[in-house]
């Protein structure tokens, strides 16, 4: 049993502390973060000397956005030498909030010694100098082994600092460099720069950053064009805002591969502690929280950004994701539909609506949404992925003739894209149409992407149904080795093994498939494993 040590001289009820701690652990595992947070807070009140409780409280407090509890837990962990490296960033945010510039500098020095975030130090120290009233620009040592990484973040901060000083020429040059470095999503950064420029009278330069034909920028363009007075945030940049900007960008970057690691969440949350009114940190936090299974907090973060503000459209897009992650599909679809209905709605809005509708098996509406996404492109420049989305929705909606035409168009536009070739080829094999042509499509897809288990399965199954069992079996074995938890692949392998006379192995493959199968498929697999292969039991 876990024993929570009592603090010397204090009166502690170990049973009560342990009960609250275990309640928090269970709530963690059940995905109830609010209960987990209150439980850890209670456990920490009962037994403030427990490093186990302090550690859990620290992580849960940051995820939930409770800065007070996070700082309290961090102090306890630090006293035991157990503070996570991002705990120093939390303490820097606190020092900046309190305008404790000497304390902030000491913490940055400690961060450098700790190593993990040392490459951020020049930019952080520069923002501290802004708070001190004796600005010193960030200087990155080219000899530093992480210099190239630090330089990825430098120009946007030079731009904000130049704008703060009113040095418009230096600011515009830095803005251009910062945007050129970013190959991914830049809407939020464009809005921030545009606000700063417009607040200083550079309306034409601000508008030039915001494309006319994108709904994400409509509100900002309208406000700038009519000379609407902008908020004080657009006329100044504080040390806390600069620090928050840095952590927000880092959080987005380390999670850009689709990962849901908690470090990105913690960085975004700490950024929001340093700049509570800044929309960027809340938008990034909403995304990361929703992806990591904290949809309730994702909803909260997305809704903390005013829907009618400049960043409102970006936050509403994240709200769609958070609602969907929370299982609130009807609300997600309703909001996605509203976002897709505005003038100049970006293709991404239509795509997300289509995906949500397809998940609800409303394939006709999904196909219409995917088709609407294509309207932003000339006919010969429609991205193949949009055609694949539409073709898939049509095929699943039992409109095969229309689907085939769309998929063939996608294959013509992207003749070397294995995903398109696989879908078109396999869909025809399923229907026993154009078998020779379909088989060639699948052979080409497999040659382009030989390690893809799904494509290997398609090719192996095509060879099986066209009678080439000897060729089918090794390819299906390779597919099953690459995706051992895929019920369809294992069933295909079992059918092929049975036809090849390898009955024992066939039953083994069917049993492996049954572990992950449901409904009619599970019943069919159980019958095959018991009775052997019959025509009515063939994989579908």
User: Helix coverage percent of residues?
Assistant: 55-70%
Largest sheet: none
Proportion of β residues?
under 5%
State the secondary-structure class: mainly alpha
Ends distance:
51 Å
The backbone outline, from C-alpha atoms, is: globular
**Total beta-strand segments:** 0
Mean pLDDT: 92
The string of secondary-structure elements, in order, is: HHHHHHHHHHHHHHHHHHHHHHHHHHHHH
Radius of gyration: 28 Å
Number of helices: 29
Low-confidence stretches: 1-14
Blueprint of the fold:
Layout: H1 14-30, H2 33-46, H3 51-64, H4 67-79, H5 85-97, H6 101-114, H7 121-132, H8 147-165, H9 168-181, H10 187-199, H11 203-208, H12 218-225, H13 239-254, H14 262-274, H15 279-291, H16 295-303, H17 312-325, H18 329-340, H19 347-359, H20 363-373, H21 384-396, H22 400-413, H23 418-430, H24 435-448, H25 453-465, H26 469-482, H27 487-499, H28 503-514, H29 519-531
Helix pairs in contact: 1-2, 2-3, 3-4, 3-14, 4-5, 5-6, 5-14, 6-7, 7-13, 8-9, 13-14, 13-15, 14-15, 15-16, 15-17, 16-17, 17-18, 18-19, 19-20, 20-21, 21-22, 22-23, 23-24, 23-25, 24-25, 25-26, 25-27, 26-27, 27-28, 28-29
Structure description:
Residues 1-14 have low confidence and may be disordered. This protein has helices at 14-30, 33-46, 51-64, 67-79, 85-97, 101-114, 121-132, 147-165, 168-181, 187-199, 203-208, 218-225, 239-254, 262-274, 279-291, 295-303, 312-325, 329-340, 347-359, 363-373, 384-396, 400-413, 418-430, 435-448, 453-465, 469-482, 487-499, 503-514, 519-531. It is built from 29 helices and no strands. By secondary structure, it is mostly helical.
């Amino acid at each position: 049993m876990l024993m929570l040590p009592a603090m010397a001289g204090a009166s502690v009820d170990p049973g009560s502390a342990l009960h609250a701690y275990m309640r928090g652990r269970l709530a963690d595992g059940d995905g109830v973060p609010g209960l987990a947070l209150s439980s850890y807070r209670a456990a920490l009140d009962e037994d403030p000397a427990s490093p186990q409780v302090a550690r859990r409280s620290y992580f849960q407090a940051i995820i939930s956005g409770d800065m007070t509890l996070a700082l309290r837990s961090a102090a306890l962990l630090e006293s035991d030498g157990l503070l996570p490296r991002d705990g120093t960033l939390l303490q820097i945010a606190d020092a900046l909030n309190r305008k404790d510039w000497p304390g902030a500098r000491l913490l940055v020095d400690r961060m450098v010694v700790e190593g993990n975030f040392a490459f951020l130090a020049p930019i952080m120290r520069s923002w501290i100098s802004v708070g001190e009233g004796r600005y010193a620009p960030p200087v990155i040592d080219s000899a530093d082994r992480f210099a190239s990484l630090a330089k990825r973040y430098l120009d946007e901060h030079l731009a904000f600092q130049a704008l703060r000083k009113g040095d418009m020429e230096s600011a515009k040059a830095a803005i251009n460099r910062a945007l050129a470095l970013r190959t991914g999503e830049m809407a939020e950064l464009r809005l921030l720069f545009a606000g700063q420029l417009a607040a200083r009278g550079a309306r034409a330069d601000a508008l030039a950053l915001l494309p006319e034909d994108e709904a994400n920028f409509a509100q900002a363009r309208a406000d700038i064009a009519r000379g609407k007075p902008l908020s004080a945030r657009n006329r100044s940049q504080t040390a806390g805002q600069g620090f928050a900007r840095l952590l927000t960008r880092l959080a987005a970057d380390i999670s850009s591969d689709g990962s849901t690691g908690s470090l990105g969440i913690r960085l975004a949350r700490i950024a929001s502690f340093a700049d509570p009114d800044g929309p960027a940190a809340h938008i990034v936090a909403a995304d990361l929280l929703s992806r990591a299974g904290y949809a309730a907090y994702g909803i909260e973060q997305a809704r903390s950004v005013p829907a009618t503000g400049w960043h409102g459209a970006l936050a509403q897009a994240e709200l769609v994701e958070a609602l969907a992650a929370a299982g609130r599909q009807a609300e997600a679809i309703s909001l996605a539909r509203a976002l897709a209905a505005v003038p100049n709605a970006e293709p991404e809005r239509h795509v997300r609506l289509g995906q949500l509708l397809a998940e609800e098996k409303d394939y006709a509406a999904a196909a219409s949404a995917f088709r609407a996404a294509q309207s932003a492109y000339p006919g010969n420049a429609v991205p193949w992925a949009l055609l694949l989305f539409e073709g898939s929705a049509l095929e699943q909606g039992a409109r095969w003739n229309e689907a085939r035409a769309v998929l063939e168009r996608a294959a013509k536009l992207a003749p070397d894209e294995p995903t398109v070739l696989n879908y078109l080829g396999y869909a025809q094999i399923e229907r026993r149409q154009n078998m020779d042509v379909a088989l060639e499509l699948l052979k080409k897809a497999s040659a382009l992407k030989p390690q893809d288990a799904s494509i290997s399965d398609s090719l192996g199954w095509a060879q099986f149904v066209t009678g080439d069992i000897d060729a089918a079996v090794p390819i299906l074995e390779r597919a099953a080795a690459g995706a051992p938890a895929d019920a369809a692949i294992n069933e295909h392998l079992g059918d092929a093994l049975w036809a090849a006379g390898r009955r024992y192995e066939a039953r083994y493959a069917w049993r492996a498939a049954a572990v992950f199968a449901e409904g009619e498929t599970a019943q069919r697999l159980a019958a095959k494993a018991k009775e052997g292969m019959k025509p009515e039991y063939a994989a579908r």
